[in-house]
């Protein structure tokens, strides 16, 4: 015999319980963040000279391969 489906009262009661539990957790999280807010980490700009050095070295390697790699 197949399992009977629960009545609408059981499904809605379970859903209400989950929603109220979720709301309780969310309100506790909001209160905790108000008490001690999380600050954003300072954003450090990228080092342009390091990236320029990498780009130049890659170009030089590419040019060296083009001129000095033996062609078959």
């Amino acid at each position: 015999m197949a399992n009977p489906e629960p009545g609408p009262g059981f499904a809605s009661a379970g859903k209400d319980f989950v929603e109220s539990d979720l709301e309780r957790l969310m309100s506790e999280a909001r209160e905790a963040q108000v008490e001690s807010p999380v600050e954003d980490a300072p954003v450090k700009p990228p080092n342009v000279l390091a990236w320029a050095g990498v780009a130049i070295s890659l170009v030089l390697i590419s040019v060296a391969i083009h001129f000095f790699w033996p062609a078959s």
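Residues 8-35 form the longest helix (28 residues). The chain has a mean pLDDT of 81.
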